[in-house]
Design goal:
- By secondary structure, the protein is an alpha+beta fold.
- It has 14 helices and 15 strands.
- The strands form four sheets. The protein has an eight-stranded mixed β-sheet with strand order 1-10-11-12-15-9-8-4. A three-stranded mixed β-sheet has the order 7-13-14, with no helix packed on it.
- Helix 3 packs antiparallel against helix 4.
- The longest helix is centred in the first third of the chain and has 34 residues.
- The two termini are 48 Å apart.
Length: 433
């Protein structure tokens, strides 16, 4: 949620920036509710003052209160109750309208109407010449008995999968490699220095977060998409997460940190669940778009002053990891319509998939400014003791999609897969599977 004062001061900017995301916001209606809410709040505060003064007069007058005093006290109570009910109603409507206002895209975000207007900022690495017609990961996986979608469909329905054998070991190796790199202060320092970022070289703390969140908690992250993304437990006020971010963000709700305690950096591993409603017919081949998948995710809490550089750090880490894995990729700056409602900025990495002969999205990085922290009330104190909201960032480390890129780009003519050098130590020194 953005600051209501910003909307009051910049109504046209809010309308224009929201439209850049293809979101229409009725700012006059919102400000109308805001004006009514402020007027009612003054009335409530005045009525409370009258009630308190009347009650204090009772205490000073030790005699029995008159019928007139009792009637006045009763009327004050009824009037206050009525005003508080009206204030609660207006507050609810105002908050619902505020939740519809997206975060403001940064000025550096290219304006575009759809993902087709995302910008390829850089291409790194060149696809290998394999010398034979490459197979898709599903062809390799089924031939090796690594991927079984048919039996998974019998058990859970479409878009579920059994991963088996060496592919499981390779995925676990990938995740452990990611955790080891992000936990290494030396690696973080090297990235900070290479990209000339004005941020700490503090490493990431590994976390196994809950896979479930309560409605109010999840909703306040601005990530609870009931229609398209999120599964709900039928008998409980609980939703399955669609990324570790969704339960890492509220981890510090209601807490205030000193400037020296920030940044807080976490690398969370969880099994994620996505309904993927509306996406049927898209990416159904193989394991690109599943209802259940494993994901390693970065989450960062920082000061406002370092939030943007923190965003750049997470993108730089993604790039370094893909380069160590020797996966060719495109660095994509997402346009305003594609970054998402809560985001101020967003970058993707599209990795080369030899079996598909195309670059496909494997990573995303999101800068949320204080949009999530406002409802979660996560704050920091500066050197002067002033309290401000923290800024949050999240970004993919690894999921099944980079695993696909490894399989397709490192396949041999015989149908084996060469293990990237940086993963071989996690696979017992093996060079291929």
């Amino acid at each position: 949620m953005i600051d209501i004062q910003f909307i009051r001061d910049n109504p046209k900017v809010v309308e224009e920036k929201a439209l850049q995301k293809n979101i229409k916001v009725d700012v006059p209606q919102l400000l109308g509710f805001d004006k009514e809410w402020r007027e009612l709040l003054l009335q409530v505060e005045e009525k409370r003052r009258e009630r308190n003064e009347h009650a204090a007069a009772f205490k000073q007058n030790k005699g029995k209160p008159s019928d007139e005093d009792l009637e006045k006290g009763k009327a004050l109570k009824e009037d206050l109750t009525d005003l508080e009910h009206k204030l609660d109603s207006i507050s609810l409507q105002l908050n619902n309208l505020l939740k519809q206002v997206p975060n403001m895209p940064l000025d550096e975000v290219p304006v575009g109407a759809s993902e087709d207007e995302n910008v390829i900022a850089q291409e790194v690495g060149k696809p290998k010449e394999l010398g034979f017609k490459p197979k898709s990961h599903i062809e390799i996986g089924e031939a090796k008995d690594w991927i079984d979608k048919k039996r998974a469909a019998k058990v859970a329905g479409s878009r579920f999968v059994y991963l088996k054998g060496d592919l499981v070991r390779l995925e676990m190796a990938l995740m452990q490699y990611g955790i080891d790199k992000l936990s290494d202060s030396k690696f973080i320092k090297e990235v900070v220095e290479k990209y000339r970022l004005k941020v700490s070289d503090k490493p990431f703390v590994p976390v196994l977060p809950p896979a479930l969140a309560k409605t109010e908690i999840y909703d306040a992250t601005a990530r609870l998409d009931k229609e398209e993304t999120t599964y709900k437990l039928a008998e409980d006020d609980l939703w399955l997460n669609a990324s570790a971010e969704h339960t890492l963000v509220p981890m510090h709700q209601g807490e205030t940190f000193t400037k020296d305690e920030l940044p807080l950096r976490y690398v969370g591993y969880t099994t994620a669940f996505r309904r993927e409603a509306g996406s049927y017919g898209k990416d159904i081949e193989g394991i690109i778009r599943l209802h259940q998948f494993n994901k390693l995710e970065m989450e960062s809490f920082s000061t406002a002053a370092t939030g943007l550089d923190e965003h750049k750090l997470l993108v730089a880490i993604q790039r370094e990891l893909m380069e160590e894995l020797e996966i060719p990729y495109q660095l994509i700056q997402k346009c305003s319509a594609d970054i998402g409602g809560p985001n101020a900025s967003g970058w993707d990495i599209n990795s080369w998939m030899a079996g598909q002969g195309a670059y496909r999205e494997t990573h995303t990085a999101d800068y949320m400014t204080d949009y999530q922290a406002r409802r979660r009330k996560t704050k920091s104190k500066d050197d002067e003791g002033k309290t401000k909201l923290v800024h949050t960032n999240d970004a993919t480390v690894f999921s099944e999609r980079p695993l696909i890129a490894i399989v397709e780009n490192n396949q041999t003519k015989e149908g084996d897969v060469i293990i990237p050098k940086v993963l071989q130590k996690y696979m017992g020194g093996r060079e291929k599977i």
